[in-house]
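User: structure tokens for GNAT family N-acetyltransferase, please.
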Amino acid sequence: MTPTEVWPLFGLRIRTPRLELRLPTDVELARLAQVAAEGVHEPGDRPFLTPWAERSPLERARHVVQGAWAGRGEWRPGDWSLNLTVFLDTDPIGVVWLSATEFAERREVSTASWLGLPHHRRGFGTEARLGALALAFDHLGAAYATSEAFPDNAASVGVSTKLGYEPDGISRDVRDGEVLVSHRLRLCRERWELNDRSGIEVSGVEPCLLLFGAS
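Assistant: Done. Predicted tokens:
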């Protein structure tokens, strides 16, 4: 059997005008880890609740590799986290996650992402999120998508606002002994339908539907 026959998610592809989102090979995963090692945000910024990107380059690289392995190993139909590598041409430049719990019943996904620092402020974050959401809404039957961001994370909030997310309250979490407030944002199907997805192509979904709990 081929790897894609065993794990159909290897055959899943999302193409946007400039990007491709898919699972990486082991060699590509190592290249992605190098992108993380070189930095994913400006020194002094703290955009993540888990401060993995503030660690040493080697620890950042290992975090990326272990996260990819964990996403596959812990996958359950309906309860999953799809770690899609974002490719620009053939170069990995970051990750967008699409996650769900009890998806068959709740029809709700959440998203998160990071890009290598040289690829910020070029519209890639919006394009990658749009591609991931096209999979969720247009092919898996999601009813809602959620996201969270700290108030000072203007880039993440800007992407959500551009795509039609609306305020959905706050979350309070603890990092390094300090209580932090995040903005919760929610995108409903009706607002999603207003987005232009004409440049997005998704392939390889059908064999994956049972794994997503979306059949």
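User: Anything notable?

Assistant: Strands lie at 13-15, 19-22, 80-88, 91-100, 108-115, 144-149, 166-175, 178-188, 201-203.
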